[in-house]
Write a structure and sequence with these properties.
By secondary structure, the chain is an alpha+beta fold. It has one domain (4-68). Helix content is 29%, strand content 32%. The protein has helices spanning 31-45, 64-68, and strands spanning 4-9, 13-18, 23-28, 53-56. A four-stranded mixed beta sheet has the order 3-2-1-4, with helices on one face. A hairpin with a 4-residue loop joins β2 (13-18) and β3. It is globular and about 30 Å long. It starts with a strand and ends with a helix. The relative contact order is 0.26.
Length: 69
């Protein structure tokens, strides 16, 4: 169950819980922030990165960057 990533979407930030290594981080809700998140996930999950499932509540325009990601 380490491949489910929980994300709380807000206007300016994303609160992200990564169960692998029990890591909770905050990133900006932007394209740049999501690139940072992807880099962190790539380092932790390596070849399993394609198996990750993102769990979040769609919040209209605030989740646009995340949905495109």
């Amino acid at each position: 169950m380490n491949n489910y990533i929980g994300i709380d979407v807000a206007k300016a930030t994303l609160q992200v819980y990564i169960p692998k290594n029990d890591l909770a981080i905050e990133i900006t809700n932007s394209e740049r922030g999501l690139k940072t998140l992807y880099s962190k996930l790539k380092k932790q999950y390596k070849k399993e990165i394609g198996d990750i499932v993102f769990v979040y509540e769609s919040t209209g325009s605030y989740s646009t960057y995340l949905e495109q990601f």
